[in-house]
Write a structure and sequence with these properties.
By secondary structure, this protein is mainly β. The protein has five helices and 31 strands.
Length: about 475
């Protein structure tokens, strides 16, 4: 575990002021950016012509061993240079040189072991977001891998199917490290999901959506709380196209932005069918024309292109709060294909919630008065890893009432270790998109969300926090201890 003194001594990155009031330095300096492809300035890059680049499919990681029914992977966190903008090289932080990281496909009750090496000059912590794991494999914010060291993470996968993701979680670094590329998908499958006639194989596609800001040299510009990240990336490239057949596709969407919330729709007001959220399939499919997904959330949707003629172009659009529309990517219907898939009216059965054994209230807030060094708070406290904020009995099933006390700043709420159920939003029952298992939930200004979680898998210390990573890096995080 890295200590606070060692963390500061490592010269680590963020543009914000930390718990002690010490401003830390950026990971990449102007000299680094110059070596990567040109002098770094805050000027904008040349305009991007959309839909010139095919959307890359994220590769699937291959285990180095499957002996004893355990899938073993080896991974290196390294700095790498990639072309994201045409003709410009961007320096990134990556898992094994990939942006985003490779997708790991796991199986319920089949363990995965990852030997994670850190080839950077700053600490990292690999967190499997949405997973039920022992605390020593959680990748908590202070439980980091030192530069040039390695750590073994064990994921037992004793949980149902789910579209999880992994990312860096080193405190005060998580925001910038994830922004610069340290994230990827982790898919758990099981017999329940296998038995359904949903789109499979090449028609089951992972899509990571995020925003970014680049300078004139093509380098990522990082600033804490930056609201001017104006380039949208899909699987690591800006505004791509994706050739599809005239049939149904399953898209596993992950919002890997630091702070951006997406309200997504298809051009022409076409329907999409949401079939899953953070913790796997919904109980029933939900037909919608709009999908709201916050930072760190995932959503599985099915789009049926069979109603479009060959040659049609369908845009995935992002609608801002002011009503402006930005095209994120384009689907090009290029061919016909057989389609044996279908979407059952029932996808899974979730057990009834147990009787709650305890109730808690959580208040999220950040400074929004324009002060030069704003901080963010959980129950009016800035994160301190030496403090336990919530004591939970092992086996308890608790209702947490989470409120956003801000008048302008949105937040969302993420718990480590558990998938929870949303039971109430602003005094009303949750909508169909929130009826499944969740690990991250939106809490907009002035909103209150009630959720229920059962803590019956592992004891130990785990964190809960806003998954707008800039906010958690500013202190909106707390520790629960399960005993």
């Amino acid at each position: 575990m890295v200590t606070r003194r060692r963390l500061l001594g490592a010269g680590i990155a963020t543009a914000a002021t930390g718990l002690t009031g010490v401003s830390l330095i950026p990971v990449f300096t102007a000299k680094d950016a110059k070596r990567a492809g040109g002098a770094s300035t805050q000027n904008t890059p040349p305009p991007i012509v959309p839909f010139q680049t095919p959307m890359p499919l994220i590769p699937v990681a291959q285990p180095v061993s499957t002996v004893g029914g355990v899938d073993r992977y080896e991974s290196n966190v390294i700095s790498a240079t990639k072309q994201i903008l045409p003709g410009l090289s961007t320096q990134l932080l990556t898992y094994d040189g990939r942006f985003p990281g490779a997708t790991i496909k796991a199986r319920e009750n089949r363990p995965v072991v990852i030997v994670q090496r850190n080839g950077l000059n700053v600490p990292v912590a690999r967190h499997l977001h949405g997973a039920s794991v022992a605390p020593e494999s959680d990748g908590g914010p202070m439980d980091t891998i030192a530069p040039n060291a390695e750590r073994v993470y064990t994921y037992p996968n004793r949980q149902p199917h789910a579209s999880l993701w992994y990312h860096d979680h080193a405190h005060h670094l998580e925001s910038e490290n994830v922004y610069r590329g340290l994230q990827g998908s982790y898919l758990i499958s099981d017999s329940i999901e296998d038995a359904l006639p949903l789109p499979k194989g090449p028609y089951d596609v992972v899509i990571h959506l995020r925003d970014a800001r680049f300078d004139a040299a093509g380098q990522l510009v990082y600033a804490m709380g930056d609201r001017t990240r104006n380039t949208l990336l899909t699987n690591g490239v800006p505004y791509p196209y994706f050739e599809v057949a005239a049939r149904k596709y399953r898209f596993r969407l992950a919002n890997s932005s630091n702070m951006r919330f997406f309200t997504l729709r298809l051009s022409g007001g076409a329907n999409m069918i949401q079939i899953g959220s953070d913790g796997g399939l919904l109980p029933a499919p939900h037909t919608t024309q709009s999908l709201f997904i916050t930072s760190g959330e995932r959503a599985d949707i099915v789009i049926d292109f069979s109603s479009y003629p060959i040659g049609a172009q369908v845009f995935l659009e992002s609608v801002a709060s002011n009503g402006s529309v930005e095209q994120v990517m384009r689907f090009d219907v290029t061919r016909s294909a057989p389609d044996p898939s279908s979407i059952p009216s029932v996808l899974r059965a979730l057990p009834p919630l147990p009787t709650a054994t305890a109730h808690r209230t959580i208040v999220m807030r950040m400074d929004e008065d324009g002060r030069p060094s704003p901080q963010a708070y959980m129950d009016d406290k800035v994160y301190d890893h030496q403090r336990v904020d919530a004591h939970v009995l092992f086996g308890a099933s608790e209702i947490w009432t989470v409120t956003n006390a801000n008048t302008r700043a949105p937040h969302n709420f993420h718990m480590h270790l558990v998938q929870f159920r949303v039971i109430e939003r602003n005094g009303a029952a949750p909508g169909p998109a929130e009826l499944g298992l969740k690990d991250t939930v939106a809490v907009m200004p002035g909103e209150t969300v009630k959720l229920q979680a059962t803590f019956d898998t592992y004891a130990g210390e785990f964190v809960y926090h806003c998954h707008m990573l800039d906010h958690s890096a500013m202190g909106m995080m707390a520790t629960m201890k399960i005993t």
